[in-house]
Design goal:
By secondary structure, this protein is mainly alpha-helical. Helix content is 52%, strand content 11%.
Length: 108
């Protein structure tokens, strides 16, 4: 993942409604959710939801697919994992994380 992609994804998630939407979509993966279900589930008005979904799509964190007359929104698990990988790439100075240190503590 490029730094600019990571910044775009983090910026998209740095808003409470978008973070809630993304987490709801991750919870509904792989099936996804319609805007109506998301709006009801998260108590977000449709027009506001549409704006936030557009921002998440632009950041590459959400995909949309038409199914007949419905739109189905799904999280981009690959993009989410790429972001997590980018954030943890240099964790623990290249050593394996979670290895025991002295006194039973673990690293990271």
């Amino acid at each position: 993942m490029k730094e600019s992609d990571a910044v775009a994804a983090l910026a998209a998630l740095a808003q409470d409604a978008r973070l809630r939407i993304f987490r709801a979509l991750v919870g509904a993966a792989p099936d996804g959710l319609t805007p109506g279900v998301l709006s009801t589930l998260l108590d977000i008005p449709s027009s506001t939801l549409s704006f936030h979904l557009k921002e998440l799509i632009h950041a590459g964190l959400v995909n949309v697919e038409r199914d007949g007359r419905s739109l189905i929104y799904r999280p981009s698990i690959a993009q989410m994992n790429a972001l997590l990988g980018y954030l943890t790439d240099h964790c623990c100075q290249g050593r394996a994380c979670g290895t025991p240190r002295s006194r039973g503590k673990t690293t990271c």
